Amino acid sequence: MNDKRITLQQAAEIIKDGASLTFSGFTIWRRPMAIVCELIRQQRRNLHLIEVQGGPHTEFLVGAGCVDIWESCWVGHELYGKYGANLSRKVGAKEIIVEDYSHAEMMFRFAAGASGAPYAATQTSLGTDIHNPAYDMLGLAGKRDGQRIAKHKYVFSDDPFYGAGAQVLVPAAKVDIAVMCVQQVGEEGTVRVNGQYYSDPEAARTADLTIVMAEEIVPEEYLRRNADQNTIASFEVDHIVECPFGAHPTGMFGRYDVDGAFLKDFYARTRSQEGFDAFAKEWIHGLDNLSYLEKLGWGRMLNLKANTALNYSTSVKRGQ
Amino acid sequence: MNDKRITLQQAAEIIKDGASLTFSGFTIWRRPMAIVCELIRQQRRNLHLIEVQGGPHTEFLVGAGCVDIWESCWVGHELYGKYGANLSRKVGAKEIIVEDYSHAEMMFRFAAGASGAPYAATQTSLGTDIHNPAYDMLGLAGKRDGQRIAKHKYVFSDDPFYGAGAQVLVPAAKVDIAVMCVQQVGEEGTVRVNGQYYSDPEAARTADLTIVMAEEIVPEEYLRRNADQNTIASFEVDHIVECPFGAHPTGMFGRYDVDGAFLKDFYARTRSQEGFDAFAKEWIHGLDNLSYLEKLGWGRMLNLKANTALNYSTSVKRGQ
Amino acid sequence: MSKNYASAEEYGLADLLCCAAAREVADNEIVFAGTGLPMVAIMLAQKTHAPNLKLIFEAGTLDGRPPEIPTSVGDARCEMGASRASGLYDAFSIAQRGYVDLGFLGGAEVDQYGNVNTTCIGDYLNPDLRLTGSGGNPDINSFAQRTVFIMVHEPRRFVENVSYITSPGWRVKKWPGGELVPRQELYGAAFRGGPSAVISTAGVFRFDAGSGRMYLDTCHPGKSPAEIKGLCQFDLDISRVSGETLPPTREELHLIHEVLDPEQIFIPRVK
Amino acid sequence: MSKNYASAEEYGLADLLCCAAAREVADNEIVFAGTGLPMVAIMLAQKTHAPNLKLIFEAGTLDGRPPEIPTSVGDARCEMGASRASGLYDAFSIAQRGYVDLGFLGGAEVDQYGNVNTTCIGDYLNPDLRLTGSGGNPDINSFAQRTVFIMVHEPRRFVENVSYITSPGWRVKKWPGGELVPRQELYGAAFRGGPSAVISTAGVFRFDAGSGRMYLDTCHPGKSPAEIKGLCQFDLDISRVSGETLPPTREELHLIHEVLDPEQIFIPRVK
């Protein structure tokens, strides 16, 4: 049995400057925040994020200057922050390359990558500026080498089989490392996600290397009693990390809710670089996962804790 | 709440002469045999089977003369019968059109159909006679109308994105009706498959209409308590039928094993049309599901019954 | 039975929008909803005239019946009572396969053809403000039979040309040239429909089947057609106004505030 | 430690094939196995020199460790102890993505380049006998790093030209013309490997890297190279024979008959 356990710090060390990354989760749910914070502490640079959609983790990494290229379709904090203020600032200052696809295009790019196909045919977003040839940002930057970044942003092609009309062919995603955050992982790497699995299976399979951070590492044998409830197979996972509350301030089905107040504060404070730096000084640098939790405090975390019958918190204040 | 319940007889009546059909299951597991037998009793004709792979249900329908076209990659009874003797006989006599794809090609054709894409790009089976243009049987028969049957069996195309080389584009499957056999279906159509789900989700979604036969119809609310364990969504299912042991002589995970002796007997007896007709007279015609079970007898069925801790039978004799 | 409509002081603009949106849904439809007011609107329809509608959330919830309003389609609340919880590949596959009747969407800018922008304000290559990006907006708008947009009405949002077409309307850009062509022409056999209504904070707008141009259908109570025309930078057709937007009923207000959003997450109470 | 090899009367041909097949597997490999003898062989390797191999069954079992030998990859026994039970799309996606090191396959006919037929005997358009069809044979053979075929050795099966190339060998047909070209040329960047061995009831055969032609590597005990050459319709290269196929060890025989297949589903006992 290969031992796949590593520490948070080791997980971040595996991710080198210049790597392309993708993540588990959806917008403000199940993002690998503890590893993201560790990457910022380790001052990782020149990352290329390729994700079905972004969220707070994107904003953390972008704000900290870790990211050169962001290929996706959306970033924000849902109702806790209308858009990605850090990304917005860096796009305005041309400190980052943004390549825009639609949400379904990104999902189909990952589905193609995960199944080993070089591209997918879809009929979404025809007639929009997503397909404006002048807006091929990776092309304009001369980065389309046909190796990890496709020669074309997309290609139009007609359906030869049923006359279904114009197809947009979108290139498979090619990703170095998937960084995941889930409820349970077995000692040998088997992942069980509870609730919606979002685009996690495709993210793990598309990436060349997969790191899974979990609330708990559980006996592999426990998960294998019900193989039809597992989400990702053992051999698709290279490294595992146990890190309770590792998704905070994002939420995790069955475990804890989104910390909306934390995200609101982050969004409000990090519109300027100075604001981000102050936030990072307070909540990222000089901390590790335990001291971060201590700083958050028991009251805050118990308030977010999910009711196990319902899988969400009944005590968290969500409204006005 | 729309009432989706119908009877076995009604299920077969919905399937008209000339319809294209696909099925749940894998080779000799979870095939909708009770509906198949009812189709034979109702003397359905000119069916077009499009399936990821065939099995006893194919042989039943083909032997009974219900099938004009079979598009797939494999038929047999695993170790209980080396190949599909009925299909073999009818292919030799040119009474049926067989269009051969590879297993992965068929699976990707269904995945494309299920996701609304007109085709899938794959790199399997290059250099084989599966791609021999002289062996395009539906083309030779003049049936490639570009409506339900694609204009081409396949198209070669180069990958424009990563230089991945020659791609085989295979057309999405287009299917009128999926006929499924599963462990549980809810009153509103939600399906929970236990064990391997094979190509069931894609079969149901690709078809325009889906009929689900289940061991049990269970309260919808029961299945909705754990939505992440369900396999097919309510609105993908049009009709439901309760029919215990409806997969016999094929097996069902957690419920009963394959009836190998029955399949061996079928295989041995149905190499000739006379043999098939005698088999059908004995086991199909003049029976309904209850009298079929009575005829099988308690001893036989208890022997096949799965041990609920293991999900398979510990009493069935499998070897020499 | 005559409906028990609320009087002007009993409801707010968010209530009005929510009810107008709910009325766009027919029973038995499959509806794709994003986070926020659309979610409340659809759940309202589910509890009134469309008990058999099926709700799909983009993150992977099929036929959802959340017991509490989710704050995101990724929310843990989405799964409770759903037929199936899975992922985005499932949701978008179902949409592309043609299951979806109606999608509810939003936008920062809209033009007279219903082209919507959620990507950036100003030149894309030198943006004044980068927004969230497309999300599933163009996808749902490409795959559904019809879509309804809910928007804040300000002149800077109802514009002659949006900064970036994120989501396709009735006249869309044909690449590589970028000339505007009818949506039907570009989508070909994949054409299923497009924007059927825009519900703004001023009125309800629909689109002419021939020209693809937006016209004013109903004015919200207290707004005149001329006033609304003045809130658009393009030349709004106000020749076909059918009347005033119906106010919420008291039953609807009760459902919104006591049952669906008692925490006032998306819909504030006016009193 | 010298191995405890069994003597000729202690084992049968199926035992020999099973052990020869098991020895093709290295530890930590991901192996794709079909029903029958290959399944026993892989489980044997798992219990001897390759405890960390990962087993994939086409029907949708990932990293399987069945407690009893399944009689089909669709069998309920596949799921017990597996990492994940899902479906064929998953299994073939993983294979096409490049995870699979080794696949075990069978065939009715094979030619000197390792092209295998499982589809029909005689002219495809007027077949003497229709067989099962391809199944996953060409897929696993296209996607895996290497494949091993297990076959009954008869002259009618080791032929100059197979009736139908179901599964691609080292010289394959380039369409539309059908001329034979090196596999590497046709697969291009998707080339990962191909047939690495054929284990027949007569011997073990491998392929020359340059010419792509089959040669005899080892003869099963009691068979001579000349005798085996006589069992092939093509001109078998017997110039590189490395010796005799190693017999099963007593430990392997114990595992096969007492642990893996006590019911004699696939491997009969000789005594």
List keywords for this structure.
heterotetramer, A: about 325 residues, alpha/beta, Glutaconate Coenzyme A-transferase, 2 domains, 3-stranded antiparallel sheet, C: about 270 residues, two-stranded antiparallel ribbon, 7 helices, about 20% helix, globular
Model description:
Chain A has 320 residues and is α/β, with parallel strands linked by helices. Chain A contains 12 helices and 11 strands. Chain A has helices spanning 8-14, 33-41, 56-63, 85-92, 103-114, 137-140, 200-206, 220-224, 260-269, 273-283, 289-296, 298-304; strands at residues 20-23, 47-50, 67-72, 97-100, 119-122, 155-158, 166-171, 175-186, 191-192, 207-218, 239-242. The radius of gyration of chain A is 19 Å and the shape is globular. Chain C has a domain at 8-105 and 134-146 and 185-260: Glutaconate Coenzyme A-transferase (3-Layer(aba) Sandwich). Chain C has helices at 13-22, 37-47, 88-97, 137-143, 183-187, 225-229, 250-260; strands at 30-33, 54-57, 61-62, 84-85, 102-106, 109-110, 116-117, 120-121, 129-130, 146-151, 171-174, 179-182, 194-200, 203-207, 214-219, 243-244. In chain C, the strands form 4 sheets. Chain C has a 10-stranded mixed β-sheet, with helices on both faces. Chains in contact: A-B, A-C, A-D, B-C, B-D. At the A-B interface, α5, β5 and β7 of A face α5, β5 and β7 of B.
CA-CA gap between termini of chain A: 51 Å
The gross shape of chain C turns out to be globular
Q: What is the fold named in CATH at topology level of the domain at 8-105 and 134-146 and 185-260 in chain C?
A: Glutaconate Coenzyme A-transferase
Oligomer: heterotetramer
How big is the Rg of chain A? 19 Å
Structural class of chain A: alpha/beta
